[in-house]
Design goal:
Organism (chains A, B): Leifsonia soli
Shape of chain A: globular
Largest sheet of chain A: none
Strand content of chain A: under 5%
Oligomer: homodimer
Distance between the termini of chain A: 27 Å
Keywords (chains A, B): DNA-binding, Transcription, Transcription regulation
Radius of gyration of chain A: 20 Å
InterPro entries (chains A, B): Homeodomain-like_sf (IPR009057), HTH-type_TetR-like_transc_reg (IPR050109), HTH_TetR (IPR001647)
GO molecular function (chains A, B): DNA-binding transcription factor activity; transcription cis-regulatory region binding
Protein name (chains A, B): AcrR family transcriptional regulator
Chain lengths: 230, 230
DNA sequence: GTCTATACAGTGATAGAC
DNA sequence: GTCTATCACTGTATAGAC
């Protein structure tokens, strides 16, 4: 490795590498706290090249945000398509099987969408840069983009999953709690703090009961551990 | 105003001024993005004085976080005391009057706590610096403090409001959604975007129905407007 | 497509005066 | 209790070479 000059690769591919690195750095340090140099190093290229390719830090953040929203929309859309292809049983069931009033309430499709969401935000860069964007409403460019994205998700859920406005709101609330628990790294506290353990089991049992339903036999500890990752 | 030298005031008072200013700046720019100089200017004093009084940027952020969590805990504790003093009707009603499964679910005390929370996070500095802290789980000092604070709130709700773990989780989820809507400045979109309007009315009708219940007659527009503030 | 060099503006923290 | 001066870095963006 002469190491100084990176391999010459197509710009589309390089662009994706930079976005991936930027997602992590923006996530950890925030928009203002992240530096183009940190991003460049994370992507294995020079700082001026990052700036040149995106025209500036703000454009780069907008790129990261667009990519995150796009991935989210695609994940939800695919989940909905699969569900419909299987012959979606009725619309989203408003009432839960076991009578729990709050936790479920979104029916089978709600569980599937929730699972798709959890899988997506295991990418901590994506999770954290979304969270950053959601706290930047005051920024003219980024704030507007973030609001648009959030509303696009709201509409998708309401219009395609058959959720009522109330169900949509509740589903989003659950998602925002997941964001917070993972942002806080609360799974690190699993098994070491009574409240954390209870909250995590309660959350992930509900969210993942579809796939991990049988995991109750394997010991409940494996469910929250699933969310720790890198 | 000779303007160069600030009035000589007691350190406790100055400390509070700095925390208030820091809360706003950290909220808007994030921990890494905020500068001690911006905070100093917002507080109307010199940058070295800020550093000297708190011993460094990290201590200052921890101070801001402690203050925010303290205010939140106090607000909830007072709300609970008032409620109990009035002769709290049963425990937290698990079932809602109008049959809505998700929105309420926390009974009278849930509505009161929700209202106390909304009032508190009208302070955008507090809201945003909490949100920042909740995305910093990876930081050894700040992350640990943030987790502790979040769990303290969880325990308070569960143990003092009589919530089940499920109800507590659901209440927190609602709070995290509120954070996001306000962080995004979604109220700016009220009346200008169909989905935003619906989501806000749905959210604030539920949260504020206690105080603004009769406001349905004044036109629903006034409810979300309440949350915009400075 | 990718780099080095560099201009110009901050940035946290310390020293020490008043 | 509060400031000015200042150091040693770090940050974005541009110019221009390969």
């Amino acid at each position: 490795m002469t190491d100084k000059i990176s391999e010459r690769i197509p710009s589309a591919e390089r662009r994706e590498q930079i976005l991936e690195a930027a997602s992590r750095v923006f996530g950890e340090r925030g928009y203002f706290g992240a530096t183009t140099d940190q991003i460049a190093k994370a992507a294995g290229i020079s700082q001026p090249y990052v700036v040149r390719m995106f025209g500036g830090k703000e454009n780069l953040f907008v790129g990261v945000l667009s990519r995150s929203l796009e991935r989210l929309l695609v994940a939800f859309t695919r989940t909905l398509e699969d569900w419909k292809a299987e012959g979606s049983p009725a619309a989203a069931a408003a009432v839960v099987s076991d009578g729990t009033p709050v936790a479920g309430g979104h029916g089978e499709i709600g569980r599937r969408l929730g699972l798709a969401y959890v899988n997506l935000i295991e990418d901590r860069g994506l999770l954290l840069s979304l969270m950053q964007a959601f706290s930047m409403g005051q920024d003219p460019t980024i704030g507007a983009k973030a609001r648009d994205g959030f509303l696009a998700i709201y509409r998708l859920l309401r219009d395609e999953a058959g959720f009522t406005p109330e169900q949509t709101r509740s589903f989003l609330a659950e998602g925002m709690l997941l964001n917070t628990l993972l942002g806080l790294r609360l799974p690190d506290e699993y098994g070491r703090d009574e409240a954390a353990t209870e909250l995590l089991e309660c959350t992930f049992r509900t969210k993942l009961e579809l796939v991990l339903g049988v995991a109750a036999e394997n010991g409940a500890a494996s469910a929250p551990a699933k969310a720790q990752g890198a």
